[in-house]
Amino acid sequence: xxxxxxxxxxxxxxxxxxxxxxxxxxxxxxxxxxxxxxxxxxxxxxxxxxxxxxxxxxxxxxxxxxxxxxxxxxxxxxxxxxxxxxxxxxxxxxxxxxxxxxxxxxxxxxxxxxxxxxxxxxxxxxxxxxxxxxxxxxxxxxxxxxxxxxxxxxxxxxxxxxxxxxxxxxxxxxxxxxxxxxxxxxxxxxxxxxxxxxxxxxxxxxxxxxxxxxxxxxxxxxxxxxxxxxxxxxxxxxxxxxxxxxxxxxxxxxxxxxxxxxxxxxxxxxxxxxxxxxxxxxxxxxxxxxxxxxxxxxxxxxxxxxxxxxxxxxxxxxxxxxx
Length: 323
Prior knowledge:
The structure is a single chain. 48% of the residues are buried. This protein is α+β, with helices and mostly antiparallel strands. Helices cover 56% and strands 9% of the residues. The strands form three sheets. A four-stranded mixed sheet has the order 1-3-4-6, with helices on one face. A two-stranded antiparallel ribbon has the order 2-5. Strands 7-8 form a two-stranded antiparallel ribbon. β7 (213-214) and β8 form a beta hairpin. It has helices at residues 7-22, 25-33, 38-49, 68-80, 87-96, 100-112, 179-211, 223-249, 252-277, 288-300, 305-314, and strands at 117-121, 125-127, 134-139, 142-145, 163-165, 171-174, 213-214, 217-218.
């Protein structure tokens, strides 16, 4: 199976990378973390204008998809630049809103960037529920459009991931939402985002060890440092084909395996980056922290490693073959 991106997909990734580099995303992330979403909304619309969210929306509802491979390509770049907001949750919302009347009502705005969605089980905490314009929750009765919640916003490990509790009740949208399918899409988007976070951490750390000197030479010339960076690079490169292979099949077990590989690689890279940066890596004012905390948060988002490994095992029969 061939996992290399074609020229059109590479050009798409390059255009997103150029746009996000010019957008100065660290300042956007810091404003978002303070509860000042104006610049984040502006960036969100630019990302939507590039067609990113339309990749999760069927063509019948003014989208371009569903196109999971291209979506994974895009989310790697979103993770590389630490773009804030309920990114995976918006993708999940597109997968939840499959009933034609609901899709026609809500999906065009998601594809165009005029709306932002979050999703969580009823009564639990949702990402950026105070900013999202569409808040989806599910309970025993089905999928609901949760009412707006003006209560307190809770901090998480990643300051850019702001949590609000979804209130029970709200308009019942459908009694049988496709939760398993939506979770698979959310995990794919999270895995791609985590891979991008890991790649950014590796790039920043390589640049740093070339500049920082000890005993009169760059610390990047030390054998132990090279070994740590090589281990991080190998883990990330092993996760890449798993991610795009999962995007091709879109099976629960393949996507769960990709999420484990990408999130564990990003988390290991974050630990390496923190160690090699030394004390400066611990400071919230240093931009590296924006990726360090995100790597840890994404690891547990939409299924921690244990849950995803269990899903992988469920995809195999007793003789070790796929069921």
